[in-house]
UniProtKB/TrEMBL annotation:
Coiled-coil boundaries: none
UniProt-recorded name of the protein: Glycosyltransferase family 1 protein
Record's keyword annotation contains Protein transport: no
Glycosyltransferase subfamily 4-like N-terminal domain sequence ranges: 14-174
Keywords: Glycosyltransferase, Transferase
An MF annotation (GO) of this entry: hexosyltransferase activity
Domain Glycosyl transferase family: 199-340
CDD domains, alphabetized: GT4-like
GO biological process, one term: carbohydrate derivative biosynthetic process
Amino acid sequence: MRVAIVTESFFPQVNGVTNSVRHVVDRLLERGHEVLLVAPAPGLAVYRSVPVVRVRSVAMPGYRTFPVGLPDRAVERALADFRPDVVHLASPIALGAVGLRASRRLGVPAVAVYQTDIGGFARQYGVRAEAAVGRWVGRIHRRADRTLVPSTASRDQLAGLGVTDLHLWRRGVALGLFGPQRRVPELNARWTRHEPGSLAVGYVGRLAPEKQVARLPELASLGGIRLVVVGDGPSRASLERQLPAAKFTGMLRGQDLAQVFASLDVFVHTGQAETFCQTIQEAQASGVPVVAPAAGGPLDLVDHGRTGLLYDPAAPGSLRDTVARLVGDHELRRTLGAAGPAAVRNRTWATVVDELIDVHYPAVLPGNRTALAA
């Protein structure tokens, strides 16, 4: 099969979209398929053996390190030259819309993967365009041959925009990387040495308004913890001023990230506009109890009281109170942490991408669409 992936983000940007695209490409290559990538400039021109067609981009206002792809005739030329069997649209908004238009002109079926709540993203940056963004997102996904959503909350959101052909397609977790065995007691001890007996409570992710990291200072007054903040982004400087006692590690990857995850005592996520929330899976795989908002993607990932705790993001003090509950209950931390690896043990990236290759791509191919319609 020949698969063209048009993505809103790829290396050197590191985020959920880039991560999932990387795993899709890796698995496609492992199974002998041919791949073309189309992504915003700048960046590498080849990933492994896969050519990456880079198109013109502009920096997003308020987030200068995130380029947004612009309409470019190179997209249709690249697709026409590659002659794909299917076009994979990764989190289509700007460049993805161009890829969708090109695929329709060329008569190539398109699978759209919904991954980013752009309306919620805009709201956190003070842009009052949620209704207009919703109409645009709905239009893109209604015109795709099939839309894949990562959670029931996302499915409900797109259904409300009039999108009908919706299918759950979740995300994998690198079980060979993340696990309780990665815990480094000495690392945990370094974090908490200022207060013997305290716990390391960590956040991992982009430090940006759309992640609602402005809630992290709620934990500053909570005794018995040392806050560990992993990641980077436009909110980092503000957080460092508000949380002078916290440990900021910057962005981490690979084994360094896996060791930090496993060495935490509690993992906290603050974002309530998450369509999925990959870091929750990684914390669960690491055997770390999770605290997450009762909204969006986390509702599918956290079984409250069994694999983590959910807090009410609309209730003042709920985040702090929920973390305090875990900090004060060793047995609850142990129980939730032990349940995490079991909850994700079947969510390998190979399994997830094989579903894409074996089920969702074939479903939109011309012969199969005719058979399904009959």
